[in-house]
From TrEMBL:
Family per similarity comment: Belongs to the ATP-dependent AMP-binding enzyme family.
Residues of the AMP-dependent synthetase/ligase domain: 14-299
Annotated keywords: Ligase
GO BP annotations, alphabetical order: fatty acid metabolic process
Protein name: Long-chain fatty acid--CoA ligase
Keyword Ligase recorded: yes
GO molecular function: medium-chain fatty acid-CoA ligase activity
């Protein structure tokens, strides 16, 4: 009797490389990790990483976390993040990723919406006590049973995962490795509000394949990931791309340009994955002479409507691949040609690589009847974005929808037939990777008091930036803290001259 084919998981990909080259370098920490978290940077082989993953996985099992339960993770781009995600999957858990810029209210909402059983964080990141944030959020989430952290000076009641890594692995359990099982939950903000977005392993792997095949990343490459990992795009561009290439993953906590350049050269990185505007900035600074080992650059566009008007790429030794991001809905990539300009993106199915005939279909791009961009394909979680049932029609079956409407305004270019993305979803603002409704901004501004100013200004690197008047800054920080904003989000507040 033939057994049905089982698609791989992220842990399956890791163990394939582990069996082939256990002593090869697997993970490289940021060089400035001591400043960011207080830990010294680590360099781990596949065998060393496997031992750490086994120890963390055993701890999750021994703690009584049932298979298929949710574990929330709020960690920076360090080795601990990768180890925790793979350990959770090995224990049969589903990972919910929590962005570092989130407010207390959003942390609590996410934990309650996903019924998370545990939360893992770092004691401090850039001087901010994330351990305290996690403990306060867990106190308001009925489902949380375990709060765990890396680092020193953890609050009472928080388990130390550094101690777990220091002792031999314990109990394990057999978990069926099937790529169709749930792997992660990320969170999006749409016009309808806050939305959890679950994904199976094969969806994450499809996102990584779309990037790695389009960019032509070689097997065994050393990949530098300088993009915040707490999202679908962040996981696909770091974890999935690394596991598919079977090389080494170097991590950078965004952003310190000098440290990033030093890391690339010290680790002889061949691939750089970073926000597109940062990549373009590096490309204008004699990339071939300053970072000669680079052979591929992948630029991730949080604001895909800006791609068409971007500057030409002038580093031919390391071609640039533009990756268009649409929140948590999905992505697609397009490698630039020899002229360094963005290529036209046509509607319909697109392969990976895009220009190669007969290549595997990575997804499909379409124009919806509302004049917005739609996506479908293996990486697109259609069910998570299903429109709400009309009031009064709960007993009437709704027509099935086989695509996700991203909300980005788009049109077809008449001469070429290419898709032109013209504007982001209405009513949604973004500061870096932090997305929120414009109504939230109005509420924050109201709390600043009479005569104060708080607005979101367009920013080519981060989408938008919060801006106000200099004389309002002290009052602004106080008011935003009262609203429960994460201190890093408060630090995004700037006056029009750029002073804090």
């Amino acid at each position: 009797m033939n057994q049905p084919a089982v698609s791989p998981t992220l842990d399956t990909l890791f163990q394939r490389t582990l069996m082939r080259q256990p002593h090869a370098t697997a993970l490289l920490d940021p060089l400035n990790k001591a400043r960011v978290t207080g830990h010294q940077p680590r360099r781990m082989s596949y065998a060393e990483a496997d031992t750490a993953i086994e120890a963390l996985s055993a701890y999750f099992v021994e703690s009584g976390l049932p298979a298929n339960s949710v574990i929330a993770i709020q960690l920076p781009a360090t080795v601990e993040f990768v180890l925790t995600v793979l350990a959770a999957h090995r224990a049969g858990l589903v990972v919910a990723v929590l962005p570092l810029l989130w407010r207390h209210a959003e942390l609590t909402a996410a934990l309650n919406r996903t019924a998370a059983r545990a939360i893992v964080t770092m004691s401090k990141v850039d001087g901010v006590s994330y351990a305290d944030l996690a403990m306060h959020a867990a106190a308001e989430a009925f489902s949380i049973r375990h709060v765990c952290g890396f680092g020193t000076d953890l609050p009472e009641g928080m388990a130390s995962l550094d101690e777990v890594l220091a002792r031999p692995p314990g109990t394990t359990r057999a978990v069926i490795q099937d790529g169709r099982k749930a792997a992660m939950i990320s969170f999006d903000v749409t016009a309808e509000g806050f939305r959890p977005v679950p994904r199976p392993h094969f969806s994450l792997i499809a996102g990584g394949l779309a990037m790695s095949l389009e960019a032509d990343i070689k097997q065994g490459a050393t990949v530098m990931a300088a993009f915040t990992p707490m999202s679908f795009a962040g996981l696909a561009s770091s974890l999935a791309v690394w596991l598919l290439s079977g090389g080494a993953l170097a991590l950078h906590h965004p952003f310190e340009n000098d440290v990033l350049e030093q890391q690339i050269n010290e680790h002889e990185c061949e691939v750089l994955i970073a926000p597109a505007q940062l990549a373009l900035r590096l490309g204008d600074s004699d990339l071939a002479a300053r970072m000669p080992t680079l052979r591929n650059v992948i630029g991730l566009w949080r604001a895909p409507e800006q791609v068409a008007a971007s500057d030409a790429w002038i580093a031919p030794h390391a071609p640039l691949t533009d990756v268009y991001l649409f929140g948590e809905a999905g992505l697609f990539g397009a490698r630039r040609g020899e002229d360094g300009m963005p290529v036209a993106v046509m509607p319909g199915p697109h392969g990976a690589p895009r220009e190669q005939s007969g290549s595997s279909i990575a997804g499909e791009i379409l124009l919806t009847p509302k004049g917005t961009l739609g996506l479908r394909g293996a990486m697109v979680p259609i069910g998570a974005y299903a429109p709400p049932q009309p009031v009064g029609e709960t007993l009437i079956a709704q027509p099935p929808r086989d695509y996700v409407d991203t909300g980005y305004a788009a049109r077809l270019d008449r001469p070429s037939g290419a898709i032109c993305i013209t504007a982001p979803p209405s009513g949604i603002m973004a500061v870096g990777g932090y997305r929120f409704l414009s109504n939230d901004l109005q509420e924050w501004a109201r709390r600043l008091g009479q005569g104060a100013l708080l607005t979101a200004l367009p920013d080519r690197l981060s989408g938008h930036r919060l801006a106000g008047r200099a004389q309002d800054n002290a009052r602004a920080r106080e008011a935003l803290n009262e609203l429960g904003l994460n201190p890093l989000m408060v630090e995004a507040f700037r006056d029009r001259s750029g002073a804090a």
